[in-house]
Structures are given as C-alpha cells and as structure tokens.
Amino acid sequence: MSASAISPLLASSGAFADAEIEEINVTGGRLPVLEVGQSVTVIDTQIQPALRLDEVLKQVPGVGLFRRANSLTAHPTTQGLSLRGVGANAAGRVLVTLDGVPLNNPFGGWIYWSSIDPRSIGEARVLKGGSASAFGPQALAGTVALTSFVPEETGGFVSAEYGAFESYSLNGAASIVGDKGYITFEGGYFETDGAFLLSEEQRGPIDVRAASDAERIGVRGAYELSEATDAFFTVRYYGENRTNGLTTALNETDGVDASLRLVHDAADGPDWEVVAYYRTNDFSNIFSSARDERTTERPVLNQFDVPGSGGGILARLKFDALEVGIEGRRASGETNELFRNLGDGFTRLRVAGGDQWTIGVFADYLHEASWGELSVSTRLDRYRTYNGSRVETNIEDGSEVRNDDVPNQGDFQFSGRVGLRHEISPAVDLKAAAYRSWRLPTINEFYRPFRVVNDITEANPNLVPEKLYGFEIGLDYEPLNTVRGSFTYYRNWLEDGVGNVTVAFGPGFFPLGGFVPAGGVLRQRANIDRTRIDGFEVNGEVDVLSNWTLIGRYQYADAEIVRFAGNPDLIGNRPVQTPRHVVYAAARHTNSLGWLTLEARYSSGQFDDDLNERRLDDIFTVNANIGFKVTDSITLTGAIENLFDAEVISGVTTTGLETIAQRRFWRIGVEARF
Question: What's phi and psi for 25, nearest 5 deg?
C-alpha cells in the first residue's frame, strides 16, 4: 500500500506508551492540500472523554454546533459546525470531510455525528479561515478534515459501554489485511433514555426525556492497483431516532453514503487523485406545541417525508509546485409536510424543494525558498439553483391555496487564498494569509420552515450566497520538541450571512407564516449585509514529567453586525450563539498501562436571538476519562462529561422557557482486541 496507519484497535487499547508509538502516516491515501499560512489544529480523536466527535472537536475554541447542545440532545437539523465567531448557523459554515469526501448533508448541510465512531478516525485537522481549491464552496469559515485509520494487520475489536440515563452502546470493527490491500467491517449501536430538556420547575405532565437511538454499519477498504496507484472504497448505512422532549416531537433519519477514490502517488511524474461519492437520506420530523400550562400538546408541523440526495466528483492533478483540478456537486431534496392544526387535525399540505449544483475549477501554486513558503490558491465556481417550488393545498378539498413562483438562480463565484510562512528563526515561524470564500445556502434554508416551541422560522427561496473576506497573521513557536505555541490575529467580514431575522411577535396571523401563538415569534431566514469579526487565538502545549501533556487554548471573537439595510435595528448586535471568550485546558497522561485525561472548558455569555434580548449565561464544564489495560487484549474504560453537572442553557423562549443541554453524562466500558 502507498499509505499506512495503525488500526483503531491498537490506538484505542494498546499503544499508550510514547516509546511504543512509531511515526505513522494517517492520510488514508490522500494527496496533501496546501495549508501554508493557515491556522491548523490537529486533534487525536482517541481516548477522549467525549462520546461523540462533535464534542471532541470543541477542544478547538470557536468550533461548535448551532446551539450549546451537543449531538446527544441537539435536533439533527442544528448539527452543522461553525468557526471563529463567524456566527452560528444551523446548516454550518464549515466543510467536514472524511478522507476527502464531504459529510455535510446534501439537503441541509448539517452532520450526523452519531454515524461516526471517533475510534475509526486516525486524525482530525481543523483548518481555520476560508479555504479554497479542492475544498470548494462549503468551506466558508474553515474545514475539518478527518482521516480514517488504515489497518496494518488482520484483527479487530469489540467494545461495550453503559452509562447515565440508561445508556448503552456496542461497537466493533474487524479487518482483513492482505498483500494488496485490506477490508474493514465496522458497526455500532447506541441507545439512551436521555435527560429532560427542561428543569423540574418548568416541566409539565407532557414533558418526556430526550430519548434516542442510533445505528451504523459500514465497510471500507483499499486495493493496490499498481505500485503507485491505490483504490479506496466506502459504503456506510446509518439510522437515528429521537424524541425531542415531548411525546409527539419525534424525528427519524435513514441514510446511505458511498464513495470511491483512486490515488496515484508516483515516485516521479505528476500525482493525481479522483474522488466520486453519492449519499442519500430520508428524514421525518414532527414539531409539537405545549398547551394548557404543559398539560397537553398538539402537533403543529408534521414533516413526514423529507428526502435528500447528492453526489459529487473531484479530480486533482499535482506537479512539483502546481496543482490543477475540477470539482462538481449536485444536491436535490424536498419537504412534504402537514401543517395548520387548529385542534381537529392538520388541514394543509405543503410540498417545497428544489435542486442545486456547483462546478468549479481550481489551481494551487507553492513556492518554496530558503526563507519559507508562499502559496496561491484560486478557484472559480458556477452555481445554479433550479426546480424550486412551494405548493400548499387544502387537504379537505384538494384546492390550491399557495403556489409560489420560485425563480432559478445562477452566477459565478470566485474564491482564493494567499498564504505565507517565513522562518524568523529555527524556533519561530511567521504565518499570514488572506482569503475570500463563499457558501451556497442549502435546500433546507431555501425551502424548509421549522418551529421550536412557539418560535416559527420561515424559509426564503430568494437567499443569495454568503461571502467571507478575511486575513490573519501570527507566530508559531517551537523552541523544543516538547514545547509548542502559537498566536494568531484575524479579521473577517461576512457578507450576506444567512440569519434568522425577527419579523413579528404573536399572538396574531401573518401572511408569511400563518398563526403565531401568544409568546411566539415569527422569523425568516434572510441575508444580513455585513458582519465584522475581530479576534485572536492563543495555543500552547507542553510535554512535562513522565508522559504528561498540558494543553491550553483561548479564542477571543468580537463579532458585530455592521450593515443591514433590511433591518437597521440589528446593527451593533452580536450574531446569535456567538460567545466572545472561549477557553480550553487539558492535562493528559499516557503510559503502558492506560491513560488519564482531565479537561476544562469555559464559554462566555451569548445571545439566543437576533435582537440580543435572550442572553445565555457563561458556562464552565469539566470532563474526565480513564483507561486501564488489564491484559494485552482487555481494557477497562470510564468517562464523565460535565463532571459537576453545571447548568448549560442552550436556548430560551420569549416566555422564559429554558432548554437545558449537556447534563452530567458518565459511562463505563470494556474493550477487547483480537
């Protein structure tokens, strides 16, 4: 094989002592991408306190989902990542790839984090700032590039865990390795009764725990076609079911992903890579409203069938200093939903959706000299949204009550990045970059409305692409191989950022969204003209004593809406769900017998609404985990998230109803290798 790495069973159970770990390649057969001048944080996803990968990634300040809730309780449509205080968005403003294949949902842009086992990931690279070239239009604020472990020998593992809220999980993987390649079978199941989303004081008889279950199964492998060319394939199925705090507030997802990659890594001559992928999923969801002081509930929106599918292809040709390529993506989806329930059942049917595609050509150039490196990346995309429609009918007689004329859109978008690395001394590097990136709104943002309690948000088929302009400058410091640090200042301007903008307050009937009950708010997705973000990041890491590592990270992000002709009252406000200060600190110890991790996280207050009236207080949480190697093949594990059960409010309504997230969650487990 032209690429190799350790297997997940070795990483999670056996390779604890530093002396036992060799230099390995965890690229999973990918050609490298340019990172000159870019702030990059590399995360080892193994032996972490967090159960899910989205929570692991929060080790990087500024990385997070739309709200403070993690994927254990967050609604799946809010599980897109954002970075650097650019402004949280349910669809996410960060591209997430696995071995170069985008994981963002083709309909809504979010990620199904329950479909990814952190133990199957060799490395997570968090690239901050707008990315161009092969990453394409979804990498507005950055990229999280995940790489899979490649097994070196035949074997596998099975693990079982039990935890708080009657939670349990089973996971396993088995690999067969031959002279020409390997094949790995992976699977897992998770189930929990979940925690209540409201405090005991605010709950009523209708409130239930946020129960969920998730399952996944997949096969991936590689085959050496020649000495320089490898073929990699992946097929994955995942499913998820959730109860969102009320008996009738349910959602369900089923999805399939498939990809094929060919990588040519020649000893001489150009290298090349070709990637093709396809994914499809079917989503259903019910929004319910609590009534009569939370003694009764009523379904208010039944999205009974929300299919989405998408695919893409990427081709790259790399010479010594120059790379050229072409990439295209297509997505299609619609929402079929029942709405307008006045007490005797739903009376209206809505069908809304459309299609979109992007295709782009790109080129990267890298100049290397004695003083450092200079890189230039350019990309030109053509996009199109088409077949858009929104039709609403009266269920009783089939008459049409609404039929929107949704215009097609299409245009060119440019993205680019210039990066610089200059070696000031053997221990200090100067880095700098300037960039322009963009993001096409998702089909979900164009066409699918949603509801949280009595807060209603309407879609907007007239949205235009988001654009991010920015620059950064900083220093990387590494006087010893045991001491590493960096400082980065950045400034970003987000133009036409998609946000949920307040239109009206209930009670009342409004043509845009229908009836809004008392205490409710009507919002619509809209392009906010310009948001400015000033910030800096500080990172430090020190290896001390015997196999101890101390880590400290801090981000300051001063974000402010500076121009919005459509609603001048929002000028000066901070974007929703955007804290000004985020701190991460950790101490980790590994040896031949196991590991111990302690980590603490702080996030300052943030707002849950565009008017900056619903403030969420600061939060401070502590996580820990431990592993003990009983034999060469058996390991006992324990972990706890939010050790002191700090109250984490992820959302608040006009009437003061507070959604609680990240409850204390402990688990113990055992893992066996074979």
Answer: -110, 120
In a 3-state reduction of DSSP, which class is residue 20? helix
Q: Do 182 and 191 contact (CB within 8 A), yes or no?
A: no
How many CB atoms sit inside 10 A of residue 19's CB? Answer: 9
Give CA 78 to chain center in angstroms: 9
The CA distance from 213 to 440, in Å, is: 32
Strand partners, 430: 422, 475
Q: 157, 164, 126, 119: which is closest to 142 by C-alpha?
A: 126
Question: Which DSSP string do the residues of 309-339 spell out, in sequence order?
Answer: EEEEEEEEEE-SSEEEEEEEEEEEEEEEEEE
Residue 109 predicted with pLDDT over 60 = yes
How confident is the model at residue 28, as a pLDDT? Answer: 54
| Confidence band for 313, pLDDT divided at 50, 70 and 90 | very high
E strand residue ranges, 104-228: 121-128, 142-148, 155-163, 167-177, 181-192, 212-224
CA dist 215 and 168 (Å) reads 12
Question: Facing residues of 369 across strands?
Answer: 372
Neighbours of 645 (CB within 10 A): 12
Domain boundaries, the chain: 8-673
Q: Which of 356, 141, 181 is nearest to 261 (CA)?
A: 181
Instruction: Average the pLDDT over each of 34-48, 75-89, 242-256, 502-516 and give the range with the smallest value.
Output: 502-516
Q: Using an 8 Å Cβ cutoff, are 92 and 82 in contact?
A: yes
Determine the average pLDDT of the residues in 349-372: 96
pLDDT of residue 7: 37
Whether 105 has a pLDDT exceeding 50, the answer reads yes
Q: Which two tokens stand for residue 637?
A: 């594990």
Q: Where do we find the tokens 């594990």?
A: 637
Please, are residues 518 and 452 in contact by the beta-carbon 8 Å criterion?
Answer: no
The token pair that represents 163 in the structure block:
């935890």
Q: How confident is the model at residue 515 (pLDDT cuts 50, 70, 90)?
A: confident
Spatial separation of the C-alpha atoms in residues 597 and 44, rounded to whole Å: 13
| Cβ-count burial 466-493 (b if 16+ within 10 Å, e if not) | bbbebbbbbebbeeeeeebbbebebebb
Q: Computed from CA positions of residues 517, 510, 401, 499, in that sequence, does the dihedral angle turn out positive or negative?
A: negative
Give the pLDDT band of residue 17 (cuts 50, 70, 90): very low
CA-to-CA dists, residue 468 to 409, 440, 491, 532, 606, angstroms: 20, 12, 10, 10, 22
Whether residue 6 is predicted with pLDDT greater than 60 in this model: the reply is no
C-beta separation of 111 from 96 below 8 A: yes
DSSP label of 58: G
State whether residue 660 is helix, strand or coil. Answer: strand
At residue 380, does pLDDT exceed 50?
Answer: yes
**How are beta strands 155-163 and 142-148 bridged, if at all?**
unpaired
Taking the complete model, does pTM exceed 0.90, yes or no? Answer: yes
3-state helix, strand, coil in the chain (%, to 5): 5, 60, 35
The b-or-e profile of 198-216 (16+ CB within 10 A means b, else e) is beeebeeebbbbbbbbbbb
Q: 8-673: which CATH architecture?
A: Beta Barrel (2.40)
Reduced to 3 states (helix: H, G, I; strand: E, B; else coil), residue 166 is: coil
- Tell me what pLDDT residue 25 has: 35
